[in-house]
Design a protein that fits this description.
Oligomer: single chain
Strand content: 15-25%
Order of helices and strands: HHEEEEEHEHEEEHEEHEEEEEHEHEEH
Distance between the termini: 28 Å
Largest sheet: 9 strands, mixed
Number of helices: 9
């Protein structure tokens, strides 16, 4: 393992960290096409002396194993959303260093944090005296949050999970969940000059949408943003209509959930509202369900998973959070807590598996999926130091066991 000139063993090689982050951003990795980033991640982990494994889905893990003791898993996803208009960017969306920042798609969501976690964990190689640390580059989180991380956790068997999404350097203690809900209305086609002879599925859906605006959602959680229900798309069949009353209409909703809500908790009130609407439309039918995500990983494995990512709440007073904050303070970094509004792979580890989970990452989360996405190089370096400090604190305090 190499170190920056004049640095002590275990110091962060900031030049190598920046280079890794830039190379990761320069390698395009839309969901399902993470192979190039996986290869770069694997190479970096091997060069830094970690034991590397690539599973059948294409997730890359690097392990430091110092013998008996607890295990900490750090997860960063390798995929990104796309860039719709490169000309709208002030800097190259395929990766550019400028003014002390790394610009590009994935710079903070989340190739910068991935690079920082790799170097942060590698810095522990000569300091780790017990326990096990696993750093992971996972696939397809932008498609569906949780299932892939669950698969990794099932293999690694961690005692605590650190999700490396951006937190502006704070410790995240929870997040809202997400459910993608599809509503499918079936009507009866007829010529649009005689709508009385059919059932207009688009008209039925319009009333469903109106009814769902008034839907009562769960009461607020003390540490998270409110539950919400947002219409994200709607389409009728046939399109264009050409003098035909539509016989089908499909709508998609994004439902941000709170801790404790199940799939049935989310769907039941929506189905009740739909039934009330259908009572006014004899001959119409409708169904509400959790959307099913299906894709093929870059390794060629077919993946299917319901698009339901549970909310989770570790809370600011949990032992793992107190240890993480103490670790950050010990290396002179701010020690503050936050909670994510968006969804992460913590939905799999905490929401489904019940594993102790927290979050920490460099970069400002409000830059996700935006034009001129970037990460400060100083934040990148602090992130690597923060990962090392948090892992050491979790193992030292025994809160990871």
């Amino acid at each position: 393992m190499t170190h920056a000139s004049g640095a002590n063993p275990g110091a962060i090689d900031e030049e190598a960290l920046t280079d890794l982050a830039l190379r990761l951003v320069q390698a395009a990795s839309p969901s399902g096409h993470e192979g190039a980033v996986a290869a770069i991640t694997r190479e970096a982990l091997e060069q830094l002396g970690l034991d590397v494994e690539v599973d059948e889905l294409g997730n890359v893990t690097g392990t430091l194993d110092a013998g008996s003791g607890p295990c900490v898993l750090l997860d960063s996803h390798m995929d990104t959303v796309g860039v719709t208009d490169p000309s709208a960017w002030s800097f190259d969306p395929a990766g550019e260093l400028a003014d002390g920042r790394l610009y590009g798609r994935g710079a903070m969501d989340m190739k910068g944090p991935l690079a920082a976690s790799v170097h942060g964990v590698a810095a522990l190689r000569e300091r780790l005296s017990f326990g096990r640390v696993v750093v992971c580059g996972s696939i397809a989180e932008e498609l569906v949050e949780g299932p892939v991380a669950q698969a990794v956790a099932g293999r690694v068997q961690p005692d605590v999970v650190l999700i490396c999404e951006a937190t502006s350097g704070r410790v995240s203690v929870g997040q809202r969940g997400r459910a993608e809900i599809t509503i499918d209305v079936a009507g009866k086609p007829t010529h649009s000059s005689r709508p009385d002879l059919g059932v207009n599925a688009a008209e039925v859906m319009a009333d469903v949408v109106r009814a769902l605006r008034a839907l009562e959602l769960p009461p607020p959680h003390p540490g998270l943003s409110p539950a919400i229900l947002v219409l994200t798309d709607i389409i009728s069949r046939p399109y264009p209509g050409l003098s035909v009353v539509p016989d089908r209409c499909l709508a998609t909703y994004d439902r941000r959930t709170l801790p404790g809500e199940s799939e049935e908790d989310v769907l039941a009130p929506i189905r009740t509202a739909i039934e009330r609407v259908l009572a006014e439309y004899p001959g119409a039918s409708a169904a509400a369900s959790i959307a099913l995500d299906a894709f093929e990983s870059y390794s060629g494995v077919r993946v299917e998973a319901p698009n339901f990512a549970p909310a989770w709440w570790t809370g600011p007073n949990a032992p793992i959070v107190r240890s993480a904050l103490a670790g950050l303070r010990a290396v002179g970094l701010p020690a503050e807590t936050t909670a994510w509004d968006f969804c992460t792979n913590g939905s799999g580890t905490a929401g489904h598996l019940g594993l102790p989970t927290l979050g920490f990452g460099p970069g400002h989360e409000e830059l996700a999926h935006r034009v001129d996405e970037h990460i400060e190089l100083s934040d990148l370096n602090d992130g690597a130091r923060g990962y090392a400090a948090i892992v050491e604190a979790l193992l030292r305090d025994g809160t990871a066991g």
